[in-house]
Specification:
By secondary structure, the protein is mostly helical. It contains four helices and no strands.
Length: about 160
């Protein structure tokens, strides 16, 4: 059975929120991780700052290039954005969501929620990023091929 019908159907922030909810649900029955509250909060806070930095940098680069930020319609991209944070990763906003979910896992201080960021990466890669890459390849051809050769999908 092909799951292609799921491509570009669920907005990535909703995917992140649903994964986060699942992580919260898994925190109670699973084994706890013994972390001092101060360490837990500082570590989670640091991850949130990293997450927001990636998210905001990606969003601002798209705005500056005057191209669509809607991940459900990548074929509407008017510009291939390769500067700023896009020199580090091709998907800074998804990287930011991954860091946000990692912060949530640290905050929850339980073992099972750490599966959440991995599940997010797997889902987003299959149903969002790979289809985006196909669309961008069609739109920008060799320029996109060269970009993918120098910049990683994640980090």
């Amino acid at each position: 059975m092909s799951l292609r019908w799921l491509e570009h159907k669920v907005p990535p922030p909703l995917v992140g929120a649903l994964v986060g909810l699942g992580m919260w649900w898994l925190a109670s029955p699973g084994p706890a991780i013994a972390l001092n509250d101060t360490v837990r909060l500082v570590l989670a806070g640091g991850l949130v700052l990293v997450a927001l930095t990636f998210d905001l940098a990606g969003l601002l680069a798209f705005r500056a290039s005057r191209t669509t930020i809607n991940p459900l319609v990548p074929q509407r991209a008017s510009t291939l954005v390769t500067g700023g944070v896009y020199r580090i990763t091709r998907n800074p906003m998804y990287v930011g969501m991954g860091f946000m979910l990692s912060a949530w896992a640290v905050y929850l201080a339980a073992l099972w929620p750490f599966l959440g960021p991995l599940m997010f990466v797997l889902y987003i890669t299959r149903f969002q990023i790979l289809p985006e890459e196909r669309a961008l390849q069609q739109l920008f051809g060799d320029a996109y091929t060269q970009y993918t050769a120098r910049v990683r999908r994640w980090l």
